[in-house]
Design brief:
The structure is a single chain. This protein is about 75% helix and about 0% strand. The longest helix has about 40 residues, at about 260-300. The protein has helices spanning about 30-45, 45-65, 70-75, 85-110, 120-130, 135-160, 160-180, 185-200, 210-240, 245-255, 260-300. It contains eleven helices and no strands. The relative contact order is 0.12. By secondary structure, the protein is an all-alpha fold. Helix 9 packs across helix 10 (about 245-255).
């Protein structure tokens, strides 16, 4: 056998792999599902771990100020799962108390480290301003603050890379801090820190009364934070992407029918009505023309 008789055709080149488009962000529906899953996980967290996580969030609140009432927690109400209302309240109350414990622990650490020694005027004056707002103003500032906080969490879950998550946190939280809005967890550290600092260094501004701090700041701000997270974010996105949205879609389909869209049916009805109107107008015009012609003829005969 000679080499000429051998089939030496080259093997076909392997097919190029199909290119897949990869997005750096999740869709709004995917972001909603991520937050829902986070809410379910938080709901199933054992109480000791939940308390520990709350204390750590209280420790971190002065550095980040973003973990007070996260959007995922409020979304429990709209998941459609069997997560009872009282279970949600349990998480909120436990988190609030644990955040307070962590914030007060941080106050003790900062006091022992003399962090604000020689520059206590700034934090004392800031705390006095926060506790001097009218009740309604503090409430509204709390609503806007947690709306921005929850928006940051929503954007974090939308981003898939570390850089995107950092930018998502930085922009809304910077706006919240720069515009002077109020968040209950951040104030759990700032105001007690100012009270201890003013007392320890005999600041001429004086110590903020505890009752004023609670009634003029923590109470309205906490209520406002809940409204901002549960209504402006969780309720809106729950109605848009959650179980209520599916129920509304099914009701809408039953209302307009499955065979054709509401728009097509509306246009068809409008077309039919317009045709009937034009036909009627044409008939009336023809009748008026006939009457006019006969009238002119009779007048000519006269």
């Amino acid at each position: 056998m000679t080499t000429a008789s051998l089939d030496l055709k080259p093997a076909p080149a392997p097919a190029a792999p199909a290119l897949q488009q990869v997005s750096l962000v999740n869709t709004p529906q995917q972001v909603y599902e991520i937050n829902v899953q986070a809410a379910v996980t938080k709901h199933n967290t054992p109480l000791p771990r939940l308390v520990l996580m709350g204390i750590m969030c209280g420790l971190f609140n002065f550095l980040f100020a973003i973990f007070g009432f996260p959007l995922g927690l409020a979304l429990i109400i709209f998941t459609g799962g069997k997560l009872g209302f009282w279970g949600t309240i349990r998480i909120l109350v436990t988190s609030w108390i644990a955040n307070l414990a962590g914030a007060l622990l941080l106050v003790g650490l900062y006091t022992g480290a003399e962090t604000f020694k020689g520059r206590e005027d700034f934090i004392v004056e800031l705390a006095w301003k926060k506790c001097s707002h009218p009740w309604g103003v503090a409430l509204l500032r709390g609503i806007i603050a947690n709306f921005l906080v929850c928006l940051a969490i929503w954007l974090v879950n939308a981003a898939r890379d570390l850089t995107g998550k950092f930018v998502a946190i930085f922009l809304p939280i910077s706006a919240f801090v720069a515009m002077g809005f109020e968040h209950c967890v951040a104030n759990m550290f700032l105001v007690p820190m100012a009270m201890v600092t003013a007392h320890r260094y005999d600041n001429p501004r004086g110590v903020i009364p505890m009752g004023q701090f609670i009634w003029r700041n923590e109470v309205p701000v906490t209520i406002g934070n809940f409204i901002g997270g549960a209504v402006l974010m969780a309720l809106v996105y729950g109605l848009a992407y959650g179980t209520p949205a599916q129920a509304m879609d099914r009701g809408w389909e039953r209302l307009v029918g499955h065979d054709e869209s509401w728009g097509k049916r509306s246009l068809r009805r409008m077309g039919t009505a317009s045709s009937q109107f034009l036909l009627r107008m044409g008939t009336l015009r023809a009748a008026s023309d006939d009457d006019g012609w006969e009238g002119s003829g009779s007048e000519g005969k006269v």
